[in-house]
Design a protein that fits this description.
This protein has helices at residues 2-6, 15-21, 30-35, 47-100, 104-107, 111-118, 123-134, 142-160, 175-191, 206-219, 229-237, 242-253, 256-262, 266-283, 285-293, 299-307, 316-329, 331-344, 346-349, 354-362, 370-378, 389-400; strands spanning 383-384, 387-388. The protein has 22 helices and 2 strands. It is globular. Strand 1 and strand 2 (387-388) form a beta hairpin. It has 401 residues and is mostly helical. A two-stranded antiparallel ribbon has the order 1-2. Among the domains are: 137-162 and 172-254, Helicase, Ruva Protein, domain 3, CATH 1.10.8; 259-400, Ypt/Rab-GAP domain of gyp1p, domain 3 (Cyclin A, domain 1, Orthogonal Bundle), CATH 1.10.472. It comes from Phaethon lepturus (White-tailed tropicbird).
């Protein structure tokens, strides 16, 4: 009516304007809405309601302050823990560099070093410690790596130019077999830590990984390339220079356990599984009985763990900590880690059937807490009827003969 009397043009209101037209106030928040007096065209709030709203507002403010205080305390605690961890790592680096590494032969097996080792080796010295712990029984030199790599490159060129029918004179293996092995290497490199994107085509470590695996097939043509090797080589590349990574890789695969698995020695593999089950039953009898009931044999989950030394199954930082202690304790720790995993998830696994157990152990949770994980491993006793791992394994080998 006003617009008609004043002659102003009528313009349709937007939905927002239409809502605002009916309000004499605009609440800025929930608290403002609680404290706001009613519009003039409505009855005023009763005193009791106004008091109630005032109390609600004050309670909201108190709760908000509590939340802020709690979050601030949490942030402060996280910062303190991070600083504490950084100080701990810094002190550990000094200890390793100044005390342990210069006196390796006399100190590596001392109680102090073993305890420090269990806590995890600082990344900056990890490669040096691994190299020393793995050793070089094969006496591989940097020059030998260069020779093996040159031979591998020559074979690659030969295969790419169509020499697949030529028989390999020095090894007795056909070029067709070698070609299949090299093709498998190419495929596996792209599958190695795909989330990191550093080993895939175009990544900074693609050629390095390809070179080490190719050189190894020339160094040990009797073993060749087996799936799982790429993950082991990749972890070493992340911690060592290329030639040193090849030396550690070759010596590591030459250990009895790794050689038994990579050469697929069924008799020895069954012995390892049997030894594992002895300690499985000793430590986790309830879960052991559940696995037996569901016909779940160790090979279903152990093979992948052992082939890749847990680098494919666990988060990389956790896998490196497993490697730390593996380099200290040898093959026994690989099976102790497996029992630690089973112990950590015992309550969950006892409620699962065959299919779900196999699926769960094939793809472990990605958010494993490291301290809880290693506490579970520490709780595993590697002794059965006064016999240690090595004694049980030897006894089983003797029985099989």
């Amino acid at each position: 009516e006003y617009e008609e009397k004043t002659g102003r043009a009528h313009r349709p209101l937007s939905p927002k304007q239409n809502v605002r037209k009916n309000l004499d106030f605009e609440p800025l928040s929930t608290t403002a809405l609680i404290l706001e007096d009613r519009p003039a065209n409505l009855p005023a709030k009763p005193a009791e309601e106004a008091q109630k709203h005032r109390q609600q507002y004050e309670e909201m403010v108190v709760q908000a302050k509590k939340r802020e205080l709690k979050e601030a305390q949490k942030r402060r605690k996280q910062l303190e823990e991070r600083c504490k961890l950084e100080d701990s790592i810094g002190n550990a680096v000094l200890t390793w560099n100044n005390e342990i590494l210069p006196n390796w032969e006399t100190m590596w097996c001392s109680r102090k070093v073993r305890e420090l080792w269990w806590q995890g080796i600082p990344p900056s010295v990890r490669g040096k410690v691994w190299s020393l712990a793995i050793g070089n029984e094969l006496n591989i030199t940097h020059e030998l790596y260069d020779i093996c790599l040159a031979r591998a490159k020559e074979k690659w060129r030969s295969l790419s130019t169509g020499g697949a029918e030529v028989e390999c004179e020095d090894t007795g293996f056909s070029a067709a077999d070698r070609e299949a092995s090299l093709e498998l290497i190419k495929l596996d490199i792209s599958r190695t830590f795909p989330n990191l994107c550093i080993f895939q085509q175009g990544g900074p470590y693609h050629d390095t990984l390809h070179s080490i695996l190719g050189a190894y097939t020339c160094y040990r043509p009797d073993v060749g390339y087996v799936q799982g090797m790429s993950f082991i080589a990749a972890v070493l590349i992340l911690n060592l220079d290329t030639a040193d990574a090849f030396i550690a890789f070759s010596n590591l695969l030459n250990k009895p356990c790794q050689m038994a698995f990579f050469r697929v020695d069924h008799g020895l593999m069954l012995t390892y599984f049997a030894a594992f089950e002895v300690f499985f039953e000793e430590n986790l009898p309830k879960l052991f009985a559940h696995f037996k009931k569901n016909n779940l044999t160790p090979d279903i989950y152990l093979i992948d763990w052992i082939f890749t030394l847990y680098s494919k199954s666990l988060p990389l930082d956790l896998a490196c900590r497993v490697w730390d202690v593996f380099c200290r304790d040898g093959e026994e720790f690989l099976f102790r880690t497996a029992l630690g995993i089973l112990k950590l998830f015992e309550d969950i696994l006892t409620k699962m059937d065959f299919i779900h157990i196999a699926q769960f152990l094939t793809k472990l949770p990605e958010d494993l807490p490291s301290e809880e994980f290693f506490a579970s491993i520490a709780a595993i006793q590697m002794q059965s009827r006064n016999k240690k791992w090595a004694q049980v394994r030897r006894m089983l080998i003797f029985d099989n003969r």
